[in-house]
Write a structure and sequence with these properties.
The complex is a heterotrimer.
Chain A: E1 51-56, H1 61-73, E2 78-82, H2 85-88, H3 112-118, E3 128-132, H4 137-151, E4 159-162, H5 166-173, H6 180-197, E5 201-202, E6 204-207, H7 209-213, H8 218-238, H9 243-246, E7 250-256, H10 260-281, H11 287-290, E8 294-298, H12 310-324, E9 329-331, H13 344-359, H14 374-396, H15 400-405, H16 408-425, H17 454-468, H18 471-485, H19 492-500, H20 505-516
Parallel strand pairs in A: 1-2, 1-9, 2-3, 3-4, 4-5, 6-7, 7-8, 8-9
Helix pairs in contact in A: 1-3, 4-19, 8-10, 8-14, 10-12, 10-14, 12-13, 18-19, 18-20
Chain B: H1 2-9, H2 13-25, H3 28-37, E1 45-50, H4 57-70, E2 75-81, E3 90-92, E4 107-113, H5 122-134, E5 139-143, E6 160-165, H6 171-178, E7 186-189, H7 197-211, E8 220-223, H8 232-249, H9 251-281, H10 283-293, H11 299-315
Parallel strand pairs in B: 1-5, 1-6, 2-4, 2-5, 6-7, 7-8
Chain C: E1 6-10, H1 19-30, E2 34-37, H2 44-53, E3 58-63, H3 68-81, E4 89-93, H4 100-106, E5 110-112, H5 118-131
Parallel strand pairs in C: 1-2, 1-3, 3-4, 4-5
Helix pairs in contact in C: 2-3
Classes of the chains: A alpha/beta, B alpha/beta, C alpha/beta.
Amino acid sequence: MERKEKFETLSGIPLKTVYDESDSPKHTSQPGEYPYTRGIHQKMYRSRLWTMRQYAGFGSAEETNERYRYLLEQGQTGLSVAFDLPTQIGYDSDDQMSIGEVGKVGVAIDSLQDMEKLFEGIPLDQVSTSMTINAPASILLAMYIATAEKQGVDPKFIKGTIQNDILKEYIARGTYIFPPKPSMKIITDIFQYCMEHTPQFNTISISGYHIREAGSTAVQEVAFTLANAIAYVETALNAGLDIDLFAPRLSFFFNAHNHFFEEIAKFRAVRRMWAKIMKERFGAKSPKSWQLRFHTQTAGSTLTAQQPDNNIVRVTLQALAAILGGTQSLHTNARDEALALPTEESARIALRTQQIIAYESGVADTVDPFGGSYVVESLTDQIEEAALVYLSQIEELGGAVSAVEQGFMQREIRKAALATQRQIESQEQIIVGMNQYQLDNEVVPELLRVDPSLAKKQIASLQKLREQRDNKLVQTELAQLRQAAGSSENVMPYILNAVRAYATVGEICNTLREIYGEYVI
Amino acid sequence: MEDWLMLLRQKDKRTIAQAITKLENRDEEAKSMLKELLPCTGKAQVIGITGSPGAGKSTLIGSLLVHLRKKGLTVGVLAIDPTSPFSGGAILGDRIRMNRHAMDEGIYLRSMANRGKVGGISIHTKDCVRVLDAAGFDVILIETVGVGQSELSIMHLADTVCVVLHPGAGDMIQVTKAGVMEIADVYVVNKADQAGATRLIAEIEDMLELSGGKGAWMPSVIAASSQQNQGITDLWECLQKHDQYLKQTGEWEKQRLAQLYQEVEEELLLLYEQRRKTLMQKESFKGLVSQLDRGETTPQELAEMLAKQLFASESE
Amino acid sequence: MQRPIRVLIAKPGLDGHDRGALIIAQALRDEGMEVIYTGIRQTPEQIVASAIQEDVDLIGLSCLSGAHNELFAEVIRLLKVQGASDIPIFAGGVIPAGDIPYLKQLGIKEIFPPGSTIKDTVAFVRNLFSREG
């Protein structure tokens, strides 16, 4: 007799009672060897720990700057900027569409002036910065470059990542602005510009994270992310870029979810699949092009609003899976993120969780400790197999862009999300503290509140900027950008010029909207 | 009840919306409302837009709305989505691509579920068209579900039928099978920037050449890309031309009369269907079935007997 | 003929997280209701115009961006201006417990914060209409 009729992973892969040699194929590659199932480096965390990179940002640039300095003092090794939604969708803080949103889910950035404040006292050649920005990625990257210039730092030495992954915005996250075609063109422009000017900056972070958060399975996360990645590579190749010049700057971003073994296997599988795609399908020559480097964040959607301290334990297990899967950098969620942005205390505990795993648990002291585990090796193979089925379906639909336009991924995710929700409600899936082991009297935790007067202050400072800057120059730069956007020219230099003249995110995006139009799914 | 009609003719959105609800539900009140409405109808140009799901109908309508508003025309849109046969519910998502027009005074958008009507959408949709017509909209666009035989019923509703196709796999075969090609007055090949569009246009033109058109009207084929706002001017010109054709040749009156005739037929079928259902749900009917089971009668005999009962109750 | 309940599910605010809204839309559909879904990034003006034109019996608002206090209040205000404040509203999303009393006082019938179930939400909607006949 067993506890349940059937045991399976969250992707529905059946789990056997016991695994043995017969389940585990004889993979021979070692860490640092193609196809990198066991990791992209020979020594992994023995030579260098993963980057502890906590996503943060709220309110004004000044407030966020303070939080960054605090996190760096506490031993965080990389920055990760969360922008508010108006910035992410290309509206200024005083736009009608921005009502109620300014500074809410991240920091409000209207112009280069805000960006300068955001990194005040943080030398940009000594920190790596990840920016969760997609549709206006070109603009925020331009602001980062311009800020470096103002600090006297050569853009050649800036390090970091822009998310810049528009396809998953259409699929799952929703902060798209322009239609797919011009969006893909801008992305290629960024690839090209950065190859030359910011060679240490990752030009894209192809993200399965939000696909998973939207309710996909682990298999869908792998398949849809790789399908999108293939589309970016193809677009860049069609634009005439050399694969071994841009591919090493592609990075990935995955979710660390609940099913411990499935998650470890997922990271191993996706690494192997990418290596094969790059080498066999695209004929990349440089090993750097084959290696999948990824950031991981623990799954926000698994956090419960009930008994929030339990989330610390969830996050620990998820973080452990990411590390055992060989992540290059990690964000651990704070316990109160199901309710609001983290308070300073919960942000600190989240960082401490990583530090305890890194320095106390010993899991970082040997490479790919689950290599050869019957169950993990078997799941690795099965995830790869299932993801390949999806990839060929997407191929039949004409590739990721066309599949997105037809709503294929969206539909598949919706089905999976509904199935999960049903399982939770029928208690087939137990969520501790939420559908079992509830408390009668929950203590309402202290939550971070964004200063309600912030929007007013931000709007006032924006209006002041509009009065003080050289508006004639702004108009000239925007006119030139308009012209470039209407041609096949690379728009990056023009955006950079507009940014330097203190044109705002909204003004630049509106200029591009005139040419490219707006996308409605 | 003159008040509501006055408000309706001023295009008061809430009055229009509530009138549609009543007519859609076919309340008792609906009958008298319809009588009051009828004299105010007959002016709008009614255009049916059909084509397979994913052909880009809603996006095309979105672009057409922009174009028509620039010309100063007011537009009512009825967008129909399927009702789930299992639950009787529906998700109506056509507004997603049109909702930027939600606040335009000269546009009224309404999503409708087909409510599982066998034989199509015509009966209850027709009354909703009348509401919009009476409200004084210049143009009424009806977007259909896009699949199945029921698409054909759009010809009983619209003056002009516009079939939207896209170069995606097998669209041509799908619509030919469904018989949609025989009802089209205008073809739109949407997503004309995609591969295969030129071939699709050629295929349609070939087919039209063989069939020789629809009466004296030769349907035209328009290449459009609603994402890129292409072909919209051509489309509207063509729709106008068809309208003129109908009116100049007297086809318009003929067609409307045929539609009314069709409507009576459908109403009659509906009445019959209601009675049939009531009859077959009766306890006595179950006894008859057991006669069948024992081989004492044949299905045909039984049906003839029931038909007598049906028509008998008619004359009661 | 019994008329199906018509519900508008709308997402005010700029966040693109439509999973909750879609799940509820689907669940209400499965309950035999006609659900009008208008997509993400809807302004209060668009939501109210849609509710009126669609003649809905109920509005469901979903917001995960944190702008719920401002945006829900605006929807309620505009409904009043249009003489349509008889349409009841329920809401869901990332809404901290501390905001719920304020939103209910504005006139929102029920709030479904994180961790709410489909079952509860559907039961609420059912109840609302069985009581009102």
